[in-house]
Amino acid sequence: MITVTELIPHRPPFLFVDEITSETADGLTARRTFRADEDFYKGHYPGAPITPGVLLCEAVFQTAACYMALKARAAGAKPGEGVPLIAKISDVRFRSPVYPGDTILLEVKQKEAMGGFTMLSGNVKKADGTRVMNVDFAVAWKTPEGAPKPA
Known about the structure:
Elements: H1 4-7, E1 19-24, E2 27-33, H2 53-74, E3 83-94, E4 103-114, E5 117-126, E6 131-142
């Protein structure tokens, strides 16, 4: 299977998807294990580390970017043509915290596509099945204005 870094431009320390575990025509599932030595745990929260909710959202969005990159490639796009841009985030619900050492499963599903936007839903669960969060969001796939063109 193709690697995450072949699909999206994100790189450590801002890469929150370790591997793609499965894909379907309307979605993708990935995995991420949060390591205790990650810098954000030093300040969130000292002595009682917890993964910031915004980073859990970002992990979902990066999973969606992988899904959209695979779709774009299947439609004939070359690697590096465009990036995913979040256009809307709604109905975020956090249900259970994620701690250092936890492995999460990230699932995105396409709901619809129209007018250059793809509407998706994302769910996060711990490896033991505990629900962590869910979010609905919209993404546009484009070359941002002012961004350097791929070589």
